[in-house]
Every structure is written in structure tokens, then in C-alpha cells.
Design brief:
alpha/beta; Rossmann fold; two-stranded antiparallel ribbon; 9 helices; binds nicotinamide-adenine-dinucleotide
């Protein structure tokens, strides 16, 4: 996909991978619609994207709120005339064991509220933004690209019942949408990163990553890297062989049902 003058919506753009992807996509000539709950931090991304010379607009919206998401996509369409891509990246985590046991006695259960909180942002939010993006892409008759950010945790990760369930759901929705939306010239793909040293990951105590380091997809080190942001941008500009993606990240969902060249 040639990103020049395309309008790309990026959720969770105030920090971390979302911010980096926004900056890189903006550098390639796209108009970026930046979405986040945290309007103050979002201004940092607005500044970074504006510095590239690209068009940028911030949307302080909650991806779990259906009417807010509908208004968001209508607003992007009215402001820029089309919705050509969305990167479903916003997330929260609230890690805990399903049941915490000490000396054979159950001490704590994962509160159902903590389960729902993560499912709301990480699964429902992706559903709502993917659906509204598809509506505008179909209405616009120009196709588009939907990129869902999953995680290696989608296969199950200790202490992440809620997050793993959401990310597995995101993986399943990605394949479903690739099948359903190909006929409208909409390509759908997922990226499942391993650990990237964003602010949220930096809060995890180092002893908790030790076991996980074996799962790092690239070089086994937890270091600040822009690679997932690059891959996302790369995905949108090429028809790279799926084997490459599988090699480079935890997993990429093959858009087997979508046409390989959109525009
Ligand atoms: N960082 C990692 O190691 C890692 C690993 C695997 C997958 N991922 C995935 O990559 C993506 C980006 O990760 P990150 O570490 O950069 O994230 P992050 O936690 O640094 O940023 C997430 C952003 O989402 C925003 N957000 C939260 N709830 C929202 C809501 N209801 N509406 C709108 N915005 C909301 C937050 O304000 C925040 O700016 C996520 O989908 C994450 O699951 C990250």
C-alpha cells in the first residue's frame, strides 16, 4: 500500500508502539488520526508526527465505547474524506493469577472486574474499531488495510488469563475478517509481538521476564526496538512472503483470503 495521502487511524497512539508506528507512517506521507484515552500524552505524538510534515489530528476517544468509536470514524471520514487503514493497538493489562495459593490455601481469586476491564479494551475495542473501519472502507469502495496487534501471549501466559484470552480473540477475529472482507478489497493482518521495552513492559519486575526471554522472537534480548513498528509499516507497503513474517515476529496471520495487491 502506498501510504502517500492515505488516512490511517492508530489507536493507543499516545505512547509505546502506537506512537512509534504513528511517527513512521506519518513519515511515509500518510495522514494519521491518533486515538487515545490519554489526551495529554497524545500531544507528544501529535508533535512527533507534525514534525514529519504530515497531516495529523488527535482524537481523545475510548475504544470500548460504541458511540464514541462510531463518532470517531465519522469524524475521521469528515475531516479527511476516507479511512484507508486502521491499526488496532490500544491495550491495557491487569495481570494476576487465576487463583493465588499459599501453603495450599487459596488466598485470592482474579476479580471478574479485572477480567472484563482487559477484555473491554483489548478485544471489544478491536472489534468496534475494526467494524467501523470496515464500514467506511466498504462505503468508500477503495478497499483498505486493517492491522490488529495481538501478542505472543495469545497462546496462554501465566498471570495473564484476561490478556491472553483477549489476544487469542484478536487473532481469531483477524483471520475471520481476512476471510469476510477480502471481497471488498480490504486486507486484514495481525502482528503478535514478543516483549518490546515500552513503558508498560518497563513496569514488569525483571525477575518476571527471565522465563519469558526464551520466547523473544528475534535475538533474545529485551531492548528498546522499533522493529514491530517497522514491520507494521513494512507490511502495509509490500506483499512480503508470509514466511518472512513468521520468522521475524511471534506470528503473523496470513491474509490468504485477501488480494495481494490492493492499490
Ligand atoms: N510492549 C510489549 O512488549 C508488547 C508485547 C506483545 C504485544 N504488545 C501489543 O502491542 C500493542 C502496543 O503495546 P505497548 O506496550 O506499546 O502499549 P502501551 O501500554 O504502552 O500503550 C497502550 C496505549 O493504549 C491506550 N489505551 C488504553 N485504554 C484505552 C482505551 N480504552 N481507549 C483508547 N486508548 C486506550 C493507553 O492510554 C496507551 O497509550 C498492544 O496491543 C500490546 O498488547 C506489546
Amino acid at each position: 500500500m502506498d501510504l502517500q495521502d492515505k488516512t490511517i487511524v492508530i489507536t493507543g497512539a499516545a505512547q509505546g508502539l502506537g506512537q512509534k508506528m504513528a511517527e513512521m507512517i506519518s513519515r511515509q506521507g500518510a495522514t494519521v488520526a491518533l486515538v487515545d484515552l490519554d489526551h495529554t500524552k497524545l500531544q507528544d505524538t501529535v508533535r512527533l508526527c507534525s514534525a514529519t510534515g504530515g497531516k495529523v489530528k488527535d482524537y481523545p476517544a475510548d475504544v470500548t465505547d460504541e458511540s464514541a468509536v462510531e463518532a470517531l470514524f465519522n469524524g475521521v471520514h469528515n475531516a479527511f474524506g476516507s479511512v484507508d487503514g486502521v491499526i488496532n493497538n490500544a491495550r491495557v493489562t491487569s495481570d494476576a493469577l487465576l487463583v493465588k495459593v499459599k501453603d495450599g490455601k487459596v488466598q485470592k481469586k482474579m476479580p471478574v472486574e479485572e477480567f472484563h476491564k482487559v477484555i473491554a479494551v483489548d478485544l471489544r475495542g478491536v472489534f468496534l474499531c475494526g467494524r467501523e473501519a470496515a464500514v467506511h472502507m466498504i462505503d468508500g469502495r477503495n478497499g483498505g488495510v486493517i492491522v490488529n496487534i495481538s501478542s505472543i501471549s495469545r497462546a496462554g501466559n501465566v498471570g495473564q488469563t484476561n490478556y491472553s484470552a483477549a489476544k487469542a480473540g484478536v487473532a481469531a477475529m483477524t483471520v475471520t475478517w481476512a476471510k469476510e472482507l477480502a471481497r471488498y478489497n480490504i486486507r486484514v493482518a495481525g502482528i503478535a509481538p514478543g516483549f518490546c521495552n515500552t513503558r508498560m513492559v518497563a513496569k514488569i519486575p525483571p525477575k518476571s521476564w527471565t522465563g519469558s526471554s526464551r520466547q523473544f522472537p528475534c535475538d533474545g534480548s529485551l531492548r528498546r526496538r522499533r522493529s514491530d513498528a517497522r514491520r507494521c509499516s513494512f507490511y502495509k507497503t509490500t506483499t512480503a512472503p508470509v514466511a518472512f513474517w513468521k520468522l521475524m515476529v511471534g506470528c503473523v496471520y496470513e491474509p490468504r483470503y485477501a488480494p495481494l495487491s490492493v492499490r
